[in-house]
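Catalogue entry: protein
Contents: sequence, fold tokens
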Amino acid sequence: MKNKFIHLGAVALAATFTGAVAASAAGFIPHRAVYDLSLKEASDRSGINNMTGRIVYELKGSECEGYAARYRFSTKVEIGGKTLVNDQRSTTFESADGKRFDFITQYFLNGQQEQDLRGSASKSDTGITVELKKPDEREVKLDPAIFMNQHLEKIIEAARQKETIYTAKVFDGSDNGDELVDTTTIIGKKKANVGSFEGEPEKLGKKFDNSTGWPVSVSYYKVNNIAGGGEKLPTYQVSFMLHEDGVSRNLTMQYEDYSMKGVLKEITYLKVGECE
């Protein structure tokens, strides 16, 4: 059930899109963000009657040493007369130079732990080396790629340069922590005075009355996942409003058989880490 109902490219969403990450020329802004999730659409094949959930994300650190992120994504799924409670908890650290990425991901189904994944990845000119510690100790060699924070930085940079497409191979520590994902980001035209979105608290929405942003859609692909006709198929897609400071709002998370909507309910900016 993990792959069907919790497969969000776990940490990728956390630090890159659903985490309401805020960025500027000086670096990311530490913060805590909360999103409420609800079922948007579900096919008959999915068997899903209803789904609700929440994402809580917290980012701390500085542009000098790097950023640590905590991410919790929980859902309650009603399917076939049963209720499934999924709970995914992730902790990551990415160095400021983008060369090291540590990750811990734990997944629980109906209160029982199903996964405990721990490891670290390092980047060199020749590729990514992953040192997995749990559930098994092993080393994995992967092609050149970027980590999550750098991926977000590249998307914001492309948007500011009025580019409409950005592609990259990314390592995010998701699934079994031993694969890269291909990503394609489609960036729409910049919008002024975005204002509120449906479901947001009135006071929160008013904070964005005079802000600008881009409608953005990011597709995730398994590397070499090619259909019979030669078309590359995404395993997951997330669409959202990306503000110039990096805050993401009005989320839609699209899977093969269903989609979810995410509404930003709270955002608190935290103290920026000091640089020596």
Summary: The helical segments are 2-5, 10-17, 148-160, 202-206. The first strand starts at residue 22 and ends at 24.
